[in-house]
Every structure is written in C-alpha cells, then in structure tokens.
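Support reply, case 0932

Customer input (verbatim):
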Amino acid sequence: MLRRDQVTTRWTHSARSKFRGQRRSSRGLGWVRAIVLLQRIADLRPGEGAKVLAAGAWFCALMTANGALRPLRDSMAVAGGVNDLHWLFTATFLVMLAAVPIYGLAVARCGRARLVPVVHRFFALNLLGFFVVMHGLVGGESDAVATWTARVFFVWTSVFNLFVISLFWSVLADLFSGQDARRLFGLIGVGGSIGAIAGPAIGGAVALWVSPSWLPLIAALLLELSLVAMRRMGREPSEAPASPVPDDPVPDDPIGGRAFAAIPELLRSPLLLGICAYVLLLTMSSTVLYFMQAQIVAVSFTDEGTRTAVFAGVDLSVNALTLAIQALLTGRLIQRIGLSWSLATLPLLCALGFACLAIAPVLLVLLGLQILRRVASYAVSRPAREVLYTMVDRSQRYKAKSLIDTVVYRGGDALTGWAFTGIKALGLGLGGIALVMAPVAGLWAGVGALLGRDQKST
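Our regenerated output:
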C-alpha cells in the first residue's frame, strides 16, 4: 500500500510530465506552422523550411541587437564631436586591422559550431562593460568620461556589427550552394529585417522612457538568444536537400590554415578582388551620406534622447520597407534579373540620389536617399553579394571575407572620412560633394555589373 503522500507525489510528477509534454507539443506545432507558412510564400523545397526558419531567427536576434545599438551609436557620434568623425573612422579602421589576425587565429583553430559562441560571448562581455560604465558605476559622471565613452562605444559598435554579421553570412555560405543561396538568402534576410524593425523600436523606446544606457545590456541578452537559434539550425535535419554543398564541412572541424592567410587568399582570387572594389565604392557612398547626415542632424537636434529617437525612426522606416520586399520579391528577383542587375541596382539608385542631393542638399532629401539606399542594400544588394561567397573555398569564406567585410570596409570609411573633411576645408559645400559622388556611384554600378556577369550559375 502506498501512503497518501506517496500517491500525491506520484500524481504531481505525472501531471507535471503531462504538462511539459503538452507544452513541448505546442511549441513543436508552432514551429511546423511557421515552416508551412514559409513554404506558401517562398520558393522552398522539401527539407529546407526548418533550417531557413532557424537561420532567420538567428539573423533576427543579431539585427535586433544591432538595430537597438545603432541609434545610440549615431547619437554617440554626435556627442563625441561631429568635427572629429574622421578620427573615429580612422580609429575604427586601426582596431579592425588589429582584430582580423586574432579572428583569423580563432577561425584556424575552431569549427563553426565553436567559433560562433566564442565570438558572440566575447562581444557580450564587452557590452556588459559598457553597461556598467554608462551607468556611472565605473569612472564617475564627468564630461571627459562621457565624451570618451561615446567615442569608444562608436568605434566598438562599428567593429561589432561588421564582425557578427560577416560571421553569420560566412556560416550560411558554408551551408547553402550558389543556386540555393539565390533563392533563400533574401528570405533568410526577412528575419534580419524583422530584427532591424524591432531593434530601433526598442532603442527609441528605451532611450525616451528609461535611459539609453540600458541598451548594451539588452543587446548582450540578444546575442545569447542568437546562439540558441544557431544551435537549432545545426540540429535541423535536411529531409531532401536540394543541391547540397560539395565541401560542406563537419561543424566541429577546425577550418585550419594560418592566422594571416586572409591577404594572400584575397590577392590570389579575381572574384575576391572584384568584391573588394565593390565594397570600397559602397563604403565611400555610405560614409559620405553618414557625414552629411551627422552635420545636418547636429544642427537640427541638440538633445541626445531626441537624436536617438529620430535615428530610430529612420531605421524603423527602412526596415519596414525592406521586410516587405525581402518576403515577397528578393529571392525571385535575384533569379529573374540575375546577379549583375542585382549588384548594380543599389549603385544606380545612389547615383540618382546624389544628383538630387546636389540640387537640394536638405534634410528631407538626405533622409529620403538614406532610406532608399539602405532598403536597396538590405533587400537586394547584400543578399546578391553574399551569394558570391558560395563560389569560393571554405577558408576564403571566413578569412578573406572577414578581411573585406571589416578592414576593407572600415578602411574605405577612414579614407572617405579624411577626404570629406579635406574637401569641406577647401570650401566645397554639401551640394558640391554630392555632385562629385554621382559619377563615383556610376563607376560602382559598372563594377557590380561586371562582377555579376562573370559568375556562372552553381
């Protein structure tokens, strides 16, 4: 005979087990429904839905963190001194230059299943440090500390967002073939757009209702959530994979090679050199627009909370438009018009925008061009550019790609920053600078068209 307390205990354990089973079943059913919805709106094949959904969730968490920090970073850039922006871009480039060999060493010794947590948790610890400093728990509340915290945070954020996003796309280039990437990278980008919508909304709300200093802590938590999605993607089986990647490695296998292999790999590959030229011209246009935006916004708004909220509003508008395009058009558009036009679309829009800005260099036109540029970048140009990395070997996907996405990108920022400052010192106004940039964007479009034309379907 069982005593009453034993019967009660067994009944309690049974009830709890049943509840947990129902809860797991409910979560599983929700996951299946999400996959079915994806298959209805996108060109998905059997076995791809779960992996695409997990990849989108990973990207969503990353872009939510990045989107929450971006308005704070832009506000910090103004707080650190608008006239010192070229120094901040130079410092970012130097930090990137020092970080790439360290990252190359990590890539050589870690498989992707280990590399991603190492990188994410390193940045999460940095974010916790910023959270402590911004709350005045370390260093006090002096103006000097606030100014230097703003400058360091700007540089750090510029390094952070490129490294984690570059690593994400490196992993995806490992997992998908070129043909599959054309179909699916835009759809996976939907997750990033959802995150990029949620991020600025969080950033603006926290900045106005609580304090911008809480944003680093929120971003650190989101980085940890992104690891959950990454692991889920690695566990998803492929029932009937379409066009499997021939050299898809075991996740725990080290990538190998030398820590400084990125530069030789870049110089040996015409494709990577072409991507390098494309990224340099892209960053030139982006940096000029960023400097122009900082100049105009600094005059228009003086309060840090208001500036952060305005930048968040711009980000929210950009990503709402991007989400609609990525969900419904990107995958089919890249397949329909090809890589050449996909890569040339953004530069052509920028050339037109710079021409309009040369005629009317005002806030409304500038913000309109920024929105148009970023929508085209996220919805079309970035997925098309990432497809190119499916055509190189595994070491190049991680090492040379990180060099291009970080050092080359931020090097272009630094050079353009100094050029912008020098041209302004000579007396050329914002309209004149925009006029100079229009033909540069035209050259960029030509590079994109040639780069896409030379790539055969894989």
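We compared this against your earlier run and they match. Two observations from our side: The chain has one domain: 46-236+259-453. The first helix runs from residue 4 to 41. Please reopen the case if you see a mismatch on your end.
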